[in-house]
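hi! just following up on the protien thing from before. the input was this:
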Amino acid sequence: MYCVAKGKDHKQYEYGSKASIASTAQGNLIVGVISHEQNQYDSHTLTEILRNVEASRGKAVKQAVCDRGYRGQREVNGSRIILPGKALKRDTRYQKDKKRKQCRRRAAIEPVIGHLKSDYRLAGNFLKGVIGDRINLLMAACAWNLKLWLLAIFWLFFPWRKPQNFPIFR
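and the predicted 3d structure came back as:
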């Protein structure tokens, strides 16, 4: 168990193990999870999660949109790393909007992490050791994905109840 500094006023520190979660570019389907044994800097964990995503999907990740905690690397294992930042003066309006849209999509992982902690028991782990941390994270991610797929199947049979913004139907 490690003390992880969050830097927020209401909750400055969290205790536990560090986890990396990767989702798809279009929807919130989780494609890779890694529980880290040590509290490492974010950019040092990026190679491991990209390798996990490549192993689970069967093909390499072309680009990864990350937050500013992953500063320091522009390319990892052939994957281009996109970080939010100020628009350049030479950028056209289209390029500025494209960058803004990509970084807005990055913010969608935060609610997924919050739901995994509150709804899928990721906040409290009752399994022992590093293996227990990995199992707990994997089971929470599987439950999240199972819920998305069950909802997609339900809306297939009842299309009049389907919400308009569900990402699997795009």
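The first helix runs from residue 42 to 57.
The chain has one domain: 2-169.
cheers
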